[in-house]
Amino acid sequence: MKHPIKTSEFDTSFFEEIKEEEGAEKILMCFNCKGCSTGCPVTDVEHGYNIKKLLRMSAMGLRDRVLNSEHLWYCTTCYRCQERCPEGVKTVDTMLKLRSLAVKSGIMLPAHRKIAEYVMRTGHGVPIDEQNRKKRKELELDELPGTVHSCPEALEEVRELARACGFDRLVGIELPSTA
Amino acid sequence: MTKNNAIKGMTSGMTDSTTEGMTNSMTSGMTNGISNDVTNSTTEGVPKCTANDITSGITNGMTSGKANDITKCTARDISSGTVEDLSNGISGSTNSGSKRNLSLFLGCIAPNRYPGIEIATRKVMERLGISLKELEGASCCPAPGVFQSFDKQTWLTLASRNLTLSEALDADLLTVCNGCYASLADTNRILKEDPEAKASVNARLSGVNREFKGSIEVRHIIEYLYREINPEKVREFITHPLDLKVAVHYGCHLVKPSHERKLGSSENPGFFDELVEATGAESVEYEDKMACCGAGGGARSAVQDLTLKLSTAKLEHMQKAGVDCIVDACPFCHLQFDQGQVEIAQRFGKEFEIPVLHYSQLLGLAMGYSPKELGIHLNRTGSTAFCEKLEEMVSDMFPGEEFGKGPEFPGDGVST
Fold first, then answer.
1. Same structural domain, B194 and B306
2. What CATH number does the domain containing B321 carry?
3. What are the helix and strand counts (H, E) for chain A?
4. I need a surface site. Which of A147, B10, B161, B344 has the fewest CB within 10 A?
5. By the CB < 8 Å criterion, does A100 face chain B?
């Protein structure tokens, strides 16, 4: 990020939205001890990744820069930073809120949209495949586990709930009602 | 203000605001203290701090000072790493009254990618005499990092539906996966504590004739076995003590966020190691043992190569320490390490050949089930050599006998 920030980029409503997540206002307590980045496993291998920076930018209201950042999706939610923050900043929880704001504004990685689609179509984020049906059979398990995979009414419940949450519309996946 | 004055000011501030349980060891340990303004503490004392790595003085949770007696601090004996006063930690049975029924929550990756974990769990729980009710129609938990990245309400709603399935059976829900544990335990807690959230979720659940009541607990097989059975009792069920060096991988969501999990230290826990050592295996220390495998938070889908670098770091540390296998508590970590070693070899040219087991599979081996019965041979990494080593071990222990046909196991399971 070489270009300097213009004050016109500050959007206070962004921080207000973030504060819908309980505890998010604690970003303001950060005094830059860098305990978060010091223990971050992603920063170890990707030195430019800096959760403290992302959160500070969010508190400043830099909506576009944050929501369009590819770094937003790097966090593995290991929670080490949130554990260690001496000020109790909800680093990971706020990061997850930022991501949901990105998704709300139409920013979603194709790979993630695929997972959302799997859950809505099959009820599983990682559905069974041919190879694993064979493995199950070999281990003397039922080829299909007793989950939504074996229970169409249950799958319909999941889809109904996804619709009730507006999840289908949120991620832009068609989920016609079978009722 | 010099550093000394800061320390003095800090410690005297603390002694003013603590109750009698507060010892000097706490304040003297904080020489490098990055602490908070403790004068904000209420006179009830220092809050339930998850004071972990005291030697570098990074403490948590001391901001709003809604406190309990300091003895509830999950502080451990840092020097020897043994567990000390865990009166509020993971020291014992949950004492939840009469023995609760348990349902088995499968999730996605165990049944659909690593069914060995499912069969191993069923076998070892049966051997321990713990019956598991079937949760019919369970869905994805849904994956905590992924779904909270999308929409929190959807995450809460889908998770609560899974909880209602177990409530209907009047059974606590047992998971074998850190991710499922996070989604289900966190949702259970949030909905129990926040009436608005519960009402909002129930409004949607009513559309499918379900209602979240908040009548059950969510358990993870590792903490369940540790607290309800305990390692000494598990040891009694071992017929084939394993002479193996194990890299124990706790993963992240089993122990963090530690304040919510209430399983003690997230920086230096010991309960999983104790369960592993109950099988006869040795839990080997390795660098940055509590580091993340990389898979979570939707990262494996989003930035796979990046996550494989995190896994590579862990594998290098494990390899350096000299281990026979990895033992994990989470099918997603399991996949990241097992499938991941294939991907790492292909993309980075590094080979590790370290076999990966879920705890249920390690326990199964120690109970005399064969690697084939436990699905270990279906792994993608290093299983052939490992299985051969195990066969050798068994034939040394019980000449002429095969795995899976070991001596009669003692007793009739765990007495209730």
1. no
2. 3.40.50
3. 11, 0
4. B10
5. yes
Check A147 against B150: CB less than 8 A apart.
no
Residue B346's CB is within 10 A of a number of other CB atoms, namely 9
Q: What is the mean pLDDT of residues B42-46?
A: 37
Same domain for B297 and B382: yes
Contact criterion met (CB < 8 Å) for A145 and B106: yes
Report the alpha-carbon distance of residue A122 to residue B188 in Å, rounded: 24
**Residues A13, A82 within the same domain:** yes
The string of pLDDT tens digits covering residues B202-246 is 999 999 999 999 999 999 999 999 999 999 999 999 999 999 999
Between A3 and B189, the higher pLDDT residue: B189
Residue A143: inside a domain: yes
Pairwise CA distance, residues B208 & B206, whole Å:
5
Provide mean pLDDT across the span A90-116: 97
- The rounded distance, in Å, linking the Cα atoms of B208 and B407 is 50
DSSP A121: H
Q: To the nearest whole angstrom, how far is the Cα of A41 from the nearest Cα of chain B?
A: 7
| Record: contact B146-A115, CB cut-off 8 A | yes
Domain of A155 in residue numbering reads as 110-171
Q: For position B147, which CATH number holds? A: 1.20.1050.140
Pair B256, B189 in one domain: no
Tokens of B365: 């081996």
Residues B20-34: tens digit of each pLDDT? 333 333 433 333 333
pTM for this entry: 0.83
Q: What percent of chain B has pLDDT over 70?
A: 74
Is residue A2 assigned to a domain? no
For residue B406, name the pLDDT band (cuts at 50, 70, 90): very low
The pLDDT of A99-116, averaged and rounded, is 97
Please check whether residue B46 lies inside any domain of the structure: no
In chain A, whose CA is at the least distance from the CA of B260? A83
pLDDT bucket at B404, cuts 50 / 70 / 90: confident
Q: How many domains does chain B have?
A: 2
Measured between alpha carbons, how far is B144 from B152 in angstroms, rounded to an integer?
Answer: 9
- Any residues with CB less than 8 A from the CB of B3 and at least 6 apart, and which? none
CA distances from B148 to A96, B154, B294 (A): 6, 8, 17
As for the ipTM of the complex, it is: 0.96
Residue B144: what pLDDT?
Answer: 97
Q: Where are any strands of DSSP class E within B329-406?
A: 356-358
| CA–CA gap between residue B400 and residue B368 (Å, rounded) | 14
Contact A80, B298 (CB under 8 A): no
Last residue of a domain, one of B221, B250, B277: B221
Size of interface A-B (CB pairs under 8 A): 236
pLDDT above 70 covers a percentage of chain A that reads 97
Residue A1 lies in a domain: no
Q: How many whole angstroms separate alpha carbon B172 and alpha carbon B133?
A: 10
Query: Which of A47, A69, A139, A156 to substitute to test the interface with B, most B CBs within 10 Å?
Result: A139
Token pair of B66 as six digits: 């809604």
Same domain for B169 and B198?
yes
Tell me which residue range forms the domain holding B153: 101-221
Checking if the pLDDT of B44 tops 80, the result is no
The Cα–Cα gap between B111 and A146 comes to 9
